[in-house]
């Protein structure tokens, strides 16, 4: 068999697809790779960008696509809320910078008042999405797999604290992104966790590793222990 350039290209795509399917990938607890990336705000070093604060790094399948246009507009609309909480935003798609810059005009027109003031990475070769575990194994174009709607929240220690992985057909809810940021920040500050359906302002639960004696010292405001059939005093609510 003669290896034509087309055949070689198809072999590369197949290998790429297989590795995308099997890849365990970057996940919570992992340190974000120290990559140099091209963005709409110039070249960025990921460790430099993520140092000393919180970062939301989020990908989307492609420029000039409907759900993505609504998502990036909403992200821009919420950006003030994120910045007030010490959180930086960094988007990604596999189109090039010229396309991103053209697309930003549509995003801002669709979401009036929203300014896309966060950088968007251009991952033309789809190498960055592999390293950041942002590949959608099911969405493809003629160049291979597209990014999924992945979202990593990176903590000040450069480690992934939370990840969402949504398919192309499901747009993300920025209220939920804000809610989980508040939860992560509370848990990093106090020995607490947030229960099911928690919203900012609701009571939080005291972490299981904290004894009642320690809890009395830590939470001057007091706490309430739920009386459960087991009589194990592990469900304790407080306000922080
Ligand atoms: C969208 O953004 O609307 C989209 C992108 C890729 C596949 C499906 C939907």
Question: What does this protein structure show overall?
Answer:
Its EC number is 1.11.1.24. Keywords: Antioxidant, Oxidoreductase, Peroxidase, Redox-active center. InterPro entries: AhpC/TSA, Peroxiredoxin_AhpC-typ, Peroxiredoxin_C, PRX_1cys, Thioredoxin-like_sf, Thioredoxin_domain. Pfam families: 1-cysPrx_C (PF10417), AhpC-TSA (PF00578). This protein has 240 residues and is α+β, with helices and mostly antiparallel strands. It is built from seven helices and 13 strands. The longest helix has 19 residues, at 66-84. The radius of gyration is 21 Å and the shape is elongated. The strands form four sheets. A five-stranded mixed β-sheet has the order 5-4-3-8-9, with helices on one face. It has helices spanning 5-22, 46-50, 66-84, 97-110, 128-131, 174-189, 212-218, and strands at residues 36-39, 42-45, 54-59, 87-93, 120-122, 135-141, 144-147, 149-154, 160-166, 192-193, 204-206, 224-225, 236-238. The chain has two domains: 23-172, Glutaredoxin (3-Layer(aba) Sandwich), CATH 3.40.30.10; 190-238, Antioxidant, Horf6, Chain A, domain2 (Antioxidant, Horf6, Chain A, domain 2, 2-Layer Sandwich). It binds benzoic acid.
Write the layout of secondary structure elements.
Elements: H1 5-22, E1 36-39, E2 42-45, H2 46-50, E3 54-59, H3 66-84, E4 87-93, H4 97-110, E5 120-122, H5 128-131, E6 135-141, E7 144-147, E8 149-154, E9 160-166, H6 174-189, E10 192-193, E11 204-206, H7 212-218, E12 224-225, E13 236-238
Parallel strand pairs: 3-4, 4-5
Antiparallel strand pairs: 1-2, 3-8, 6-7, 8-9, 10-11, 11-13, 12-13
Benzoic acid binds at residues 61-62, 65-68, 139, 168-169.
GO cellular component, one term: cytosol
Organism: Clitoria ternatea
GO molecular function: thioredoxin-dependent peroxiredoxin activity
